[in-house]
Every structure is written in C-alpha cells, then in structure tokens.
C-alpha cells in the first residue's frame, strides 16, 4: 500500500512534487492559519511520515496517535516542540534541519545587533513619518559596535558564525557555553568566561542557546542587573530563555539600553505586549532562517529525510 505523508504547513508545490511521485501526500493548505491541534491528531492517525514545523506541538499524545509513524521531519534546527523521549520510546525517527540555516540565522542575529545599537528601525520610521526636518548633533545617536565586546551565550554552530561576523567589526569576543569550544578560541580568538563575567563585561549579549530545562528563564532580572547600563541584549534562540517581564523592567528602569528580539515566549506575540511599546526594542517575527535560499534548503532536507526513512534508509539528519 502506498505510504502516506502528512505536511502540517502549506509548502510550495515544487518542493513536494518529488514526494508525490511515490507517496500519497496530504498537506494543510491554509496559509493564513495553523492546523488546529485536534485536526493534526486526526491526520497523523494513518500517516507514515509527518513534516512539521516549530509551531506544532509534537507531544506524546500526537506521537502515540500516529501509530504508523516512522518519521517526524521538523523544519527547524531546534526541536523543543517535540517530545524526544516519547519518540525514542515509540521508535519514531525525528529529524531536524541543522547546518543549512546556520549562516542566515547568524546574519539575522548580527543584523538585530546592528539595528538595535544604531536605532535603525526607529530612524527609518522617523524618515518615513516625515519627522526629519532638521539636523542636530545627537539626533538618533546610537552605540558603536566596532571594537566593542560581544558576549555570545551558546557557542554552537550559529554562535561561531556570529563570532566570525564580529571579527569583521574588530570586536572582542567572549562566550559562555556548557563546554569549551577550542576551535572558536583558536580560530576566532573567542575567550571562554563564566555567565556572570560575560554579563558584566559585554556591550552586546547575544543569546543563541537551545531551549532546554537548564536554559529556560536563564535571563532574569538578576542577570539583566549584572549587565552594563549601555548593554544591548539580542535574542535569536528561543523566547522562553528570557523572562519577558524582567526584560521589560530592566529596559524601562534603564538597567540595559536596548533589546533586539527575534523570538518571544508566545509566538506570534500579542501586538499589545508591553515590550513592543518600547522604542529601544527591535522586534522581528522569528525570521532567523527566513531567506528564500535557506528556507528552500530546509524544506528540501525535510523531504530527503522522509524519502530516506520511508525507503528504509538511514535519516540524513536524525536528532538522536
Ligand atoms: C524555524 C528556528 O526553523 O530552526 C529553528 O530552530 O527557530 C527557525 O529557523 C522556523 O521558525 C520554522 O519552524
């Protein structure tokens, strides 16, 4: 019997065309809204493979409902939306999309750093709103980036590329990670420090760590208080590593100078969220990996992982 694949997001026809040649493919086709959870549970019941994204909660119930499931291909490098231990118990392969998104996500993290430090979004609005009537020496004056200290929290592959970008700005590079990264030290001159020292010494704190039990709520008021008052905080990893109320309080009380955020505790974030009211916050809708080139590679990798597992070959990028 033809094996069945369910795709939880509308993907371009050319991406799924190769799958359609050999498999029975069904796809959620509404671009403007995600598949309701109950519907996903129903769809997964007779699926051999599921192609999913970060927005879907691939929990034990869903994995158990998919009693024919051989693979869940998650279109993201992170897989905190997947219950990995249940997948292991049930013998379901989970794949992610590492490497292909590293450079684009690092670009976005660095762009957020620059945009926040140089007040670029505020400045663009200023011009577009017709407020640019005259010149004054400190009009929209931001903070220098070159030759400053960047502190990278999470020196994985994306962290290393951000560090590489930072060398082009002659920055002093500090990092904090679960383990030492000798290659980042040797090749990029990054210096390993403990978390508190990184907070105290950095002008830019860039968070790129995965979301785990240990990293959840890593950035609390206590952490922000340890930063310089001129510090800019950038988060391109996962929202829940930050206590958003604490970040808001740190920003309004002037404990830090600004924040560039690509991720939030609840996504999509409510437009009325207090953080979005602050001019020193640059907010992006989780677009770290969102370039045409990279998203195409991510989709292709998901397709290839599914093809491999459904034809009894090894997955290309399994997470365990
Ligand atoms: C997601 C991400 O891929 O890869 C990750 O972990 O956070 C993003 O690149 C994107 O939101 C689609 O799920």
From TrEMBL:
This is D-glycerate dehydrogenase. One of its GO terms (molecular function) is hydroxypyruvate reductase [NAD(P)H] activity. InterPro entries: D-isomer_2-hydroxyacid_DH, D-isomer_2_OHA_DH_cat_dom, D-isomer_DH_CS, D-isomer_DH_CS1, D-isomer_DH_NAD-bd, NAD(P)-bd_dom_sf. PANTHER family: 2-HYDROXYACID DEHYDROGENASE-RELATED, GLYOXYLATE_HYDROXYPYRUVATE REDUCTASE B. Belongs to the D-isomer specific 2-hydroxyacid dehydrogenase family. Residues 5-319 form the D-isomer specific 2-hydroxyacid dehydrogenase catalytic domain. Residues 110-288 form the D-isomer specific 2-hydroxyacid dehydrogenase NAD-binding domain. Keywords: Oxidoreductase. One of its GO terms (cellular component) is cytosol.
